[in-house]
Amino acid sequence: MARQIKKLKNIIIPNPKKLEKTIKAFMQEGADKIHILSGFDSTLTRTLVNGEKVNSLIAVLRNNKLLTPDYRDRADALFNKFYPIEHNPHISFKEKKRAMHKWWILHFNLLIKAGFSKKDIAKTVKLAKTTLRAGGQRFFKLLGENKIPLIIMSASGLGRESVKAYLKYGNNHTNNIHIISNSFIWNKNGRAIGYNKPIIHSVNKDETLVKNFPAVMKKIKLRTNVVLMGDMLEDLHMITGFNYDHLIKIGFLNENIKTKLPIFKKHFDVILLNDAPMYFVNQLLKKITAKKL
């Protein structure tokens, strides 16, 4: 039997017996049956660095004036209009979906008009303070060693290319990583001239299903034991439409903990608080991939 997972700080397990039972099911079927389904910002990465909130990559692009002079003012205006809608608990989920879809379309068109290019992505990644959680590199290494697919579902406003560029910049991008995110259409000079559908935003992960991405689905369709990781309740919808056998849901609760904790306890099997390191996740991976004696 694999060694027990050590108790670590900033971790809550609402139902330890249920979790242990699921872990045993994972162990019995081995690494070949597992895949990881995860968000990116504030899940694989930290929310705060040196006590300051980390800007998203799109905010870094906007704040560093990398595009046309009017881009920042127009992007700020969109943010000021739609961000309050996104986080207003009194606005219906349906209305938020419509608003977020409109925001992403308007912003993508603004990026294209402002001359957004692949070079801007590279500059943004280098300027960003985006930081993996402690133990993050070990997490990627464990997945690579065990050939476990990692599906990253991101609503990034700079798209799949920016997430991939960030991982490559830190030497963490390997063949077992698959990114489901927004993507642009580029001309031969690497300048954005359009964007692809479906559009992925913060509150439509119940519609942006893995099964709608055949190349990714092919990699995981027989890997029916899933570890799902996210920092929002909406991230739970990432598993919708996938016929899994066993599921471990890990929630990363970084802000407004007192308010959100009760609902997180109802929906997640494990809750990591306050930008907790990936140590628990890494221990879990070691345990469920341990070779049988």
Structure described in brief:
Helices cover 40% and strands 15% of the residues. The protein is an alpha/beta fold.
Structure overview:
The protein is α/β, with parallel strands linked by helices and 293 residues long. It folds into two domains: 11-50 and 132-288, Rossmann fold (3-Layer(aba) Sandwich), CATH 3.40.50.1000; 53-126, Orthogonal Bundle (DNA polymerase, domain 1), CATH 1.10.150.340. The protein is 40% helix and 15% strand. The strands form three sheets. The protein has a seven-stranded mixed beta sheet with strand order 1-11-10-9-2-5-6, sandwiched between helices. It has a two-stranded antiparallel ribbon with strand order 3-4. The longest helix has 21 residues, at 93-113. The chain starts with 10 loop residues before the first strand and ends in a 5-residue tail after the last helix. 35% of the residues are buried. The model has no long low-confidence stretch (mean pLDDT 91).
